[in-house]
């Protein structure tokens, strides 16, 4: 399943199509092939279990970091309910020595923060680093377009952030990596990583994903949560109606009808198709694949579970249970509708929870957002989608010289200090009194903090992931980790676990167009009867069969 | 004698008038209601917006704090200034180049005008592609420069054809008489052709100005520094902020701007075009139609 950005990307693609720019986008994708000839167009698979000589040795957290309050089952991170009173200073030397400005590009969602020279947060962190880092902050929703052009033109900054979900969309990315970015293996493999002890604290699984063409090519930013989606509901509003969250698909539909009151301007749902698929146990590993009983890869489009989910979601739309603003387009403001009680259930990324609760409880004190525990629509244990792929990767520009690479890695190492350190605190919260105020429960960002801090350094680094406490929402860590640790028991097993896959180019490029067609069926713009024909067409024209062969070969090559 | 007149010359019936009025009213409302809602939302308090579910139709008091925020010297103010500069400079550059090129291509005796016109028209059919364009812009040192928003699209061939058509419609005798009086080509263009071409210049100028005001994709590709972002880049990131990805411990978006701020930015973005349009409108039909059907 595509991440939360898929909708926006699709909208823009359609917009570009209307304005005649789709040819440009296609051209850009095609021109990535200029990065070199190789296996990218046919796909590439790296067996990460054979990479022990390439991966960094696992290091331990610095001394003095407090023990977490809640221990979790991996890949769910541990959690802290209290902000540490004593922060550990783990890096005494300034990592920058040359004084030469570092160029970096990172994504941001929302208004871009002020740039170097006008941003006290950047000044403060750069002072700590001993070297200026000049960020080009690019809109996260159109990041792939910018990346396409930059990679095609071989024009990259010294530190480049590439989010995981963009990697999945960029054709022949492995070729681009080889042509444009520094091979970090000789700097970080094995015990060499000890020169950068913060990087050594990253989980090995995250490093495995940073390997391209059998070499360590990037620094991963480990994920702090495995689940792509949650179904959230307004507990305060359901409680007021004497209702509770649904525990079966029938209850979901019944509650949907019960709470939808078009005259009052209230509808039950946002688009919850991914969750409906999850309830039906439709597969999601590696963009929606699983193994049949005979060991053959099978895509979700070919499964009865997906078809059943499709029919249920189409019925939800047909019955008018989705807010019309959201049914009409993918760009409707779902969060605003949820906050105002115009919808009672929304499908969103898990991280939406804390931010919405913190903001909205100031306006509506009774506001209570909670996730619906995943259930099975077909009996037995539920199936929960999830993986532990990194959030993003930081690439180092090729050809900058050994000393510069080491300086860049020292900077990234400083930015990767874990929770509980002074470095992490400065990176996340800037300067006390300016960007945050300290409360008994921890730091709270000021308006200036929100304006100037946009995860700039976070996106050119990583950290040993934890769930941190938020003073505004004291119950959040417990609630989140209770839900996450309960759900992790049912997390889908990925048959290609340990194999890093880059799908064939045709399959990659056709994923979104076919998802658009499926969306048309769900929303009633195409009849349900077209689905079977669409799947047949997808197997050949959409690269489905090619992907199946590729996946089967990847497993057999890995000895699975 | 046959007094039958074509139906469009007949005096309209009351029903016909009412029907036209109704259709035009509906069309006007389709445009005005969303604009009204954007305006009212931009002037509403957070509670009013929350109660309304996002967009407000019925105002409950006026709260101008969103406008105060965006004009208080932040990134929106800067972006408005950037867009204004790009629009003014870009429109001047584009009009100058378009008029000069159109005049040359409209004179039958110009050297190589047919070949040149062919190359201009070829760009209608063949788009150079994203990466080659990017390579050219970075190669000539325009990356992260506001000129990157102007020069690559300085001449719109569509506008060039419209202006050329208009110029071709001017009586040759007029230009010949100026020539007999000793005027050179630049003087003819400046003293004779341009004063007679105000409608088409106004319309094409508006096309260019709207294009530069709305520039977004070029800024996405070529502008790296935040302080050089035009207003449409800021508007897009604000409007779509709700679609930021989320992870369990960390929401990656910064504090979202309130709905009122988003809508205030929409109003500020739309306002210049809405305000300028009525002054250009009287030239519109004449400018486009005349330029389009002659030549």
Automatic annotation (TrEMBL), chain A:
Q: Which residues form a coiled coil?
A: none
Enumerate the UniProt keywords alphabetically. Answer: Signal, Transport
What cellular component terms from Gene Ontology apply here? cell envelope
Q: What InterPro entries is this protein classified in?
A: Bact_solute-bd_prot1, SBP, TAT_signal
Spell out the Pfam families in the cross-references: SBP_bac_1 (PF01547)
Transmembrane stretches, by residue range? none
Q: Where in the cell is it found?
A: Cell envelope
Give the family this protein belongs to, as stated in its UniProt record. Belongs to the bacterial solute-binding protein 1 family.
What is the protein named?
A: Sugar ABC transporter substrate-binding protein
UniProtKB/TrEMBL annotation, chain B:
Tell me the superkingdom of the source.
Bacteria
User: Where does the protein end up?
Assistant: Cell membrane
Ordered alphabetically, the record's keywords are:
Cell membrane, Membrane, Transmembrane, Transmembrane helix, Transport
Q: Mind telling me which InterPro entries this protein's record contains?
A: MetI-like, MetI-like_sf
A Gene Ontology biological process noted in the UniProt record is: transmembrane transport
Q: Name the protein family.
A: Belongs to the binding-protein-dependent transport system permease family.
The protein depicted here goes by the name: ABC transporter permease
């Amino acid at each position: 399943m595509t991440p939360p950005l898929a909708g926006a990307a699709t909208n823009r693609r359609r917009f570009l199509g209307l304005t005649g720019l789709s040819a440009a986008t296609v051209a850009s994708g095609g021109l990535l092939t200029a990065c070199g000839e190789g296996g990218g167009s046919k796909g590439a698979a790296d067996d990460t279990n054979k990479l022990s000589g390439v991966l960094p040795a696992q290091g331990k957290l610095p001394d003095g970091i407090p023990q977490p309050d809640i221990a979790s089952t991996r890949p769910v991170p541990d959690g802290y309910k209290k902000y540490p009173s004593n922060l550990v200073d783990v890096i005494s030397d300034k990592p920058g020595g040359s004084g030469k400005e570092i160029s970096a590009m990172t994504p941001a969602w929302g208004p871009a923060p002020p740039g170097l020279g006008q941003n006290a947060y950047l000044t403060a962190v750069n002072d700590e680093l001993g070297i200026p880092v000049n960020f080009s902050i690019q809109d996260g929703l159109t990041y792939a377009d910018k990346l396409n052009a930059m990679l095609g033109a071989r024009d990259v900054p010294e530190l480049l952030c590439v989010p995981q979900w963009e990697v999945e969309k960029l054709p022949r990315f492995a070729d681009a990596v080889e042509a444009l970015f520094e091979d970090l293996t000789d700097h970080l493999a094995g015990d060499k990583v000890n020169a950068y002890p913060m990087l050594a604290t990253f989980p090995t699984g995250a490093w495995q994903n940073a390997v391209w063409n059998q070499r360590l090519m990037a620094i991963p930013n480990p994920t702090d949560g495995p689940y792509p989606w949650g179904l959230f509901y307004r507990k305060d509003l359901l409680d007021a109606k004497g209702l509770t969250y649904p525990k079966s698909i029938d209850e979901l539909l019944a509650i949907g009808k019960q709470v939808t009151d078009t005259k009052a301007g209230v509808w039950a749902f946002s688009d919850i198709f991914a969750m409906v698929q999850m309830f039906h146990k439709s597969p999601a590993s590696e963009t929606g694949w699983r193994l049949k009983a005979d060991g053959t890869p099978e895509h979700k489009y070919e499964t009865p579970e997906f078809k059943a989910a499709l029919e249920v979601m189409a019925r939800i739309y047909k019955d008018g249970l989705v807010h019309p603003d959201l049914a009409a387009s993918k760009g409707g403001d779902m969060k605003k509708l949820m906050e105002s009680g115009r919808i009672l259930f929304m499908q969103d990324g898990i991280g939406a929870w804390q931010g919405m609760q913190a903001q909205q409880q100031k306006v509506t004190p009774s506001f209570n957002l909670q996730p619906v525990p995943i259930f099975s629509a077909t009996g037995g244990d539920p199936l929960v989608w999830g993986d532990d792929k990194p959030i993003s990767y930081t690439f180092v520009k090729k050809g900058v010289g050994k000393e510069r690479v080491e300086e860049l890695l020292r900077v990234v190492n400083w930015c990767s200090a874990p929770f509980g350190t002074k470095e992490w605190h400065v990176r996340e919260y800037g300067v006390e009194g300016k960007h945050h105020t300290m409360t008994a429960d921890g730091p709270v960002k000021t308006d200036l903090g929100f304006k100037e801090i946009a995860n700039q350094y976070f996106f050119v680094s990583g950290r040993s992931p934890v769930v941190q406490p938020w003073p505004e929402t004291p119950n959040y860590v417990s609630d989140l980790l209770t839900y996450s640790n309960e759900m992790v028991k049912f997390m889908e097993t990925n048959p290609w676990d340990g194999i890093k896959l880059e799908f064939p180019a045709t399959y990659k490029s056709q994923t979104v167009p076919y998802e658009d067609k499926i969306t048309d069926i769900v929303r009633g713009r195409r009849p349900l009867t077209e689905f079977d024909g669409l799947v047949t067409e997808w197997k050949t024209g959409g690269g489905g069969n090619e992907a199946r062969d590729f996946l089967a070969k990847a497993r057999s090559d890995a000895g699975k | 004698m046959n007094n039958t007149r074509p139906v469009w010359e007949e005096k309209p019936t009351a029903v016909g008038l009412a029907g036209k009025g109704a259709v035009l009213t509906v069309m006007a409302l389709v445009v005005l209601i969303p604009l009204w809602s954007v305006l009212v939302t931009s002037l509403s308090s957070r509670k009013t917006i929350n109660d309304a579910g996002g967009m407000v139709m019925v105002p409950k008091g006026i709260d101008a704090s969103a406008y105060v925020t965006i004009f208080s010297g932040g990134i929106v103010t800067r972006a408005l200034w950037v867009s204004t500069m790009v629009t003014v400079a870009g429109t001047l550059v584009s009009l100058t180049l378009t008029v000069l090129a159109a005049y040359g291509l409209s004179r039958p005796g110009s050297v190589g005008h047919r070949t040149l016109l062919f190359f201009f028209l070829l760009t209608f059919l063949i788009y150079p592609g994203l990466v080659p364009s990017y390579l050219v812009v970075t190669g000539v040192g325009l990356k992260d420069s506001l000129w990157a928003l102007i020069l690559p699209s300085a001449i719109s061939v569509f506008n060039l054809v419209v202006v050329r058509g208009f110029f071709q419609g001017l009586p040759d005798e007029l230009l010949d008489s100026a020539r007999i009086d000793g005027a050179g080509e630049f003087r003819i263009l400046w003293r004779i052709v341009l004063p007679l071409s105000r409608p088409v210049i106004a319309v094409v100028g508006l096309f260019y100005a709207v294009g530069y005001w709305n520039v977004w994709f070029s800024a996405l590709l070529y502008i790296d520094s935040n302080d050089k972002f035009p207003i449409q880049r800021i508007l897009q990131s604000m409007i779509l902020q709700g679609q930021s990805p989320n992870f369990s411990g960390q929401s990656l978006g910064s504090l979202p701007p309130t709905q009122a701020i988003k809508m205030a930015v929409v109003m500020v973005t739309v306002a210049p075009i809405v305000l300028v349009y009525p002054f250009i409108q009287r030239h519109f039909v004449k400018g486009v139609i005349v330029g389009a059907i002659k030549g």
